[in-house]
Amino acid sequence: MEVSPEHRVVFHNVREYPRITEYIARFDTETARVNTIAIIIGLLTGFVIGVYDRTLQYSNTFLGMQQGFPLHEFPHYYVLFVPAFGGLLVGLISHFLMKKKYGVDGLIETVTLRGARLNLKDVFLEVFTSIITISSGGSLGKEAPGILAGAGTGAFMGKILNSTERQLQILLGCGAAGGIAAAFNAPLAGVVFVVEVIYGELETRTFIPIVISSVFATLVSSTLFGIKPIEISPYQLINPYKELGLCLVLGLLAGIVSTVLIRTLYYTKDIFSEIPFHPVFKPALGGLAVGAMGIFYPRVMGMGYTVITDVLNNQFTFKILIILLFLKILAFSLSLGSGGSGGTIVPSLFTGAMLGGAFWTVANLFFPGTLAEQGAYAMVGMGAVFAGTARAPLTAILILFEITRDYNMILPLMFACVLSNVMSNALYPESIFTEGLRRKGFKIRKGREVDIMSSLFVKDAMITYVQTVSEEKSVETLTTLMQVSRHVGFPVLDSKGKLSGIVTLSDLRSKVKSGDVDKKVKDIATRRLEVAYPDETLDAVLKRFASKQIGRLPVVDREDKTRLLGLITRSDIVNAYNKKVVEKVRDTY
Asked: Which compartment or compartments is the protein found in (predicted)?
């Protein structure tokens, strides 16, 4: 039977249909899906950053802080108490509504050690508290909260799609890159920041999605919300060889200042951790101190974009530059170290601008009329101090380059950033982000935990069923308990069931005379306790065992050190270590 031409066409299409399906299937890969999700994350992140920026602007206008200046129009009590009131609100929200504060260091910890799983409620509450801190005069930046908001957006998409751990790491990186790209209008810097600081290394499968997300986030934030970076005029070196040498010196000085900034921040955190105030009130105390400085030098309050612009336009004397340099470090440390929320990037840029401007003033005394403008050195200082604090020289170079779009200053900027990174690394091995992780016992390099003991936590090894002794019991009862249980130490509880000390066999031997069996446990117990926390690493606890020459530690709640959660001993640590080693060997084979 002869087939009509129309039917021939139909039969031909039926035969070709499997080929079309196969062709489409080539594009339906995991890579294509991740890149598509990266576009969505970029669009959402750009929108989130735009809303965050507008909200921050409105709250600044409402409170009248306007990035901390001009505050001379307000009475002194207003400048003093608004930051304190903002700190009180942050303290209330952080203590009663949040389980964890992240920041960039928390994001690194999450990506590296926590399976890239963020608590979205805590993330966006921290972003909200950053608005309160900054708009009330806290001396912090908005970019780090923007990074966190972007990462939260990526985590939200991952939760919807029920993504695997590896996919979540990529999605969080996409959001974080989009956050910094949208905030600075610098897509390249956003990509490199995630690779350099959060991931620690470059992989093709992560690089392409974060590039895509960074580009789309920048498009949304710049076109829909009009977010613009700090405006910096193009500069030109007058005497390239001489000024290149001066920029090398500036880079070394920036490395020193970066170290001072990091040390001051964590020293301030240590001070506030020891102040016997309820955690709710500590951010208020920090805000009060910043407000006191703001009465005399209002430019140290808020983010300080306008102040940076003034330095770039040669508006300040040497004396003001030096004062603002050191006061900004102090105000920043008080704002963040007391428990406020905000970022470290803009304070680093602010400090670098002051350093660069002051350096130019001194250099101009020796080489008058033969140097570029003061703003050129302020710009180089901005990049160099940021490179030293974050240990991210490539990110610093790209941020300043994308802001200025000026290639003339790229060589001195590169030299200064690299030298600052080398100098600060020699003086202090941790960055402003990894120092907090080191204090928790983590040793993270190139985006990976490098020590088994630093990847295990106290909560994974501690004993939760703990045999205790009342402080009212007699020494005779304690002796009997030690003989029956074969334990040589017990946590001591008071009448309310709160931890009040620890008693060991050595206390019994050194503090009890022969026959003195009626003595109370509270009379011989050690009151000044060394304790451990559930979220500490075994590496940190093991070092404490060695330095204090002890064999057991009570595990307590960080917020209430009298609440006993468990006990950890040297043998518990050894058992946990052996178990982890066996698991790693099994996974290898």
From this structure: Membrane
Q: Is 490 helix (H, G, I), strand (E, B) or coil?
A: strand
Partners of 256 in the β-ladder: none
66: left (phi over 0), alpha (psi -120 to 50) or beta: left
User: Do the beta carbons of residue 235 and residue 379 sit within 8 Å?
Assistant: yes
Residue whose C-alpha is closest to residue 555's, from 529, 531, 535: 531
Range 458-587 classified under CATH 3.40.50.2300 = no
C-alpha 260/C-alpha 119 separation (Å) is 33
Distance CA 190, CA 184 (A): 8
Model confidence band, residue 444 (pLDDT cutoffs 50, 70, 90) = low
pLDDT reported for residue 453? 65
Backbone angles phi, psi at 569, to 5 degrees: -125, 170
pTM: 0.76
**Ramachandran bin of 423, using left for φ above 0, alpha for ψ from -120 to 50, beta for the remaining angles:** alpha
Q: Cα–Cα distance between 448 and 461 in angstroms, integer?
A: 22
d(Cα 58, Cα 207) in Å, to the nearest integer?
35
What percent of the chain shows pLDDT beyond 90? Answer: 47
Residue type, 103: G
Model confidence pLDDT, tens digit, residues 179-221: 999 988 889 999 999 988 888 766 767 889 999 999 999 999 9
Cα–Cα distance measured from residue 227 to residue 284, given in angstroms and rounded to the nearest whole number? 31
Torsion angle of C-alpha atoms 303, 306, 311, 317, degrees rounded to 10 = -90
Element (H, E) at 365: helix 345-366
Q: 380-421: per-residue pLDDT in tens?
A: 999 999 999 999 999 999 988 887 777 788 899 999 999 999
Query: Which sequence spans correspond to the domains of the chain?
Result: 22-225, 240-440, 458-587
Cβ count within 10 A of residue 96: 8
* Burial of 520 from C-beta contacts in 10 A (0-12 / 13-18 / 19+): middle
Which residue's structure tokens are 């100098």?
423
The string of DSSP codes covering 124-183 is HHHHHHHHHHHHTT-S-BSHHHHHHHHHHHHHHHHHHTT--HHHHHHHHHHHHHHHHHHH
Q: What would be the CATH architecture of the domain defined by 22-225?
A: Orthogonal Bundle (1.10)
- Helix ranges (H only) for 70-142 are 76-97, 103-113, 120-135
